[in-house]
Design goal:
The chain is mainly beta. It has 1 helix and 24 strands. The strands form 6 sheets. The protein has a 4-stranded antiparallel beta sheet with strand order 1-24-23-22, with no helix packed on it. It has a 4-stranded antiparallel beta sheet with strand order 2-3-4-5, with no helix packed on it. Strand 22 and strand 23 form a beta hairpin.
Length: 288
């Protein structure tokens, strides 16, 4: 399959796309430009300026969103005008920022950080509970990515992008425990490295392969069943949505491209879309 450019957004670092079932819209971030984008059900695009860079945006059960700003997690209203800090993140580590995230089966959020200065394994993976309690789940990470959950909520996926392995964990009731299982896939499962991910209703794990120019679907037994090609090398995140849940949205980046590469791939940094066979799983909303 081939993805087509839906919005020529020219994002410096497009990331964190998420389907919002409350109004059938899609939101995503341009991390480096400190902006949020929203694509409405009528295909209208609106962008909002943020007080700092944001690694993720997730819809809440209440009005508004939960946003992973560079140094803190905040609740924000639907107009992106009021930001309420829920918790600071790694205040003692100036080189890290918040990166990827997903809503867990219990309404909390799991998110990770990224050492953007030295690219050393000093970052971590956290869970923020609906009550606002922050707990470290994993440490010694360089770039947190690929966070997603199985349809039954019993399996959590995670990838440290430079390592390339897509890891699996069994989630205990109310997230009381986390037990590592055998990996879903190793670094050689597809070109590029694992970035953002989403799991469909059959348990297929869609992995954006940054620098590999594609997105792949990996079945629960580790086999690549589908591959979507892009005209740019930098897919970063994926979301499933649309009227039937079968539209695969893909954010991309423009950073770390030569001018020659941008000339050959002028839509780098755009929002891409492909139609897939298996729909999204039931959407989750954050209770944080």
């Amino acid at each position: 399959m081939k993805a087509t450019c839906l919005v020529d957004a020219r994002n410096t670092l497009g990331e964190g796309c998420v389907w919002d079932p409350r109004d059938d819209s899609l939101c995503w971030t341009d991390i480096e430009e400190s902006r949020i984008y929203r694509l409405s059900s009528r295909q209208e695009v609106t962008s909002y300026a943020l007080p700092e860079r944001a690694g993720f945006i997730l819809p809440r059960k209440e009005a508004g969103f939960i946003v992973g700003l560079a140094s803190r997690i905040a609740r924000v209203d639907a107009a992106f005008s009021r930001f309420e800090t829920v918790t600071e993140v790694e205040p003692a580590l100036a080189q890290t920022r918040v990166n990827d995230a997903a809503i867990d089966p219990f309404g909390g959020i799991v998110f990770g950080t990224f050492d953007e200065r030295d690219r050393q394994p000093v970052a971590s993976l956290y869970r923020l509970s609906p009550e606002g309690d922050l707990r470290q789940l994993l440490r010694d990470i360089t770039i947190s990515n690929g966070i997603a959950f199985s349809p039954d909520g019993e399996i959590m996926y995670f990838a440290d992008t430079p390592v390339g392995v897509i890891r699996r964990f069994k989630v205990g009731a109310a997230f009381a425990s986390l037990e590592e299982l055998a990996p879903l896939a190793d670094a050689n499962v597809a070109p590029g490295s694992p970035d953002g991910a989403i799991v469909d209703c059959e348990g297929g794990y869609w992995s954006a392969r940054v620098w590999g120019g594609c997105v792949v679907r990996i079945s629960a037994d580790g086999e690549v069943t589908d591959r979507v090609e892009l005209p740019t090398k930098g897919p970063t995140c994926v979301a499933l949505g649309g009227p039937d849940g079968k539209r695969l949205f893909i954010t991309t980046l423009r950073v770390r491209h030569t001018q020659e590469e941008l000339d050959l791939s002028p839509t780098a940094g755009g929002l891409f879309v492909a139609d897939v066979a298996v729909p999204a799983q039931a959407p989750r909303l954050a209770s944080v």
